[in-house]
Amino acid sequence: PKAKYTPCIKVCEHDDQGYCLGCQRTEDEVKEWRNRTVEEQLAGIEMLRDRKNGELDYDTQYEKMSDDNDD
User: Strand, helix or coil at 8?
Assistant: First the structure.
């Protein structure tokens, strides 16, 4: 299935921490994105916005992604 909402801006290069320079997703997040529900995609975009702004540390990001997938 094709993702309805995606943060991809077609800049698919990763930094030293493994985050895409365009959308801030890891490779695993990119691979699994299309399997998310619309609600999970929208929640993921919010989380990525926080990640980009430096508002999340690794543990918080992991908890948010796990919470998104628990629904």
Answer: coil
Tokens encoding 26: 């890891």
State the Cα–Cα distance between residues 26 and 15, nearest whole angstrom.
10
Give tens-digit pLDDT for 13-36: 999 999 999 999 999 999 999 999
| Beta strand segments in 20-63, E | none
pTM of the model: 0.72
pLDDT higher at 60 or 6: 6
Terminal-to-terminal C-alpha distance of the chain: 19
- Exposed e or buried b for every residue in 8-39, given b needs 16+ CB within 10 A? eeeeeeeeeeebbeebbbbeebbeebeebeee
**Backbone torsion region of residue 26, taken as left when φ is above 0, otherwise alpha when ψ lies between -120 and 50, otherwise beta:** beta
